[in-house]
Design a protein that fits this description.
Blueprint (H helix, E strand, L loop, with lengths): L7 E8 L2 E7 L5 H22 L21
Length: 72
């Protein structure tokens, strides 16, 4: 990842179980380096969150079973 121009992080939205970010950065070789750079950036974000004791909450889901109604 290149340092110039500087990377940009834009906060797009807050969701019940997420913060949506738009990360923009420049790389040397986009044809052969896009996926591995994206992976490295995501791993670094996860590492820094862990270092700051920021946890990812698991979404809560509930399922309710309802008796089918008979013919009206």
């Amino acid at each position: 990842m290149l340092t110039m121009p500087a990377p940009i992080c834009l906060a797009k939205a807050f969701a019940p179980d997420a913060v949506e970010l738009d990360l923009r950065f420049w790389i040397d070789d986009p044809k052969s380096g896009g996926a591995n750079v994206k992976s490295a950036v995501l791993i670094e974000i996860r590492t820094r969150f862990a270092a700051e004791n920021i946890i990812f909450a698991a979404p809560r889901r509930s399922i309710r079973l309802v008796e089918p109604r008979g013919p009206d």
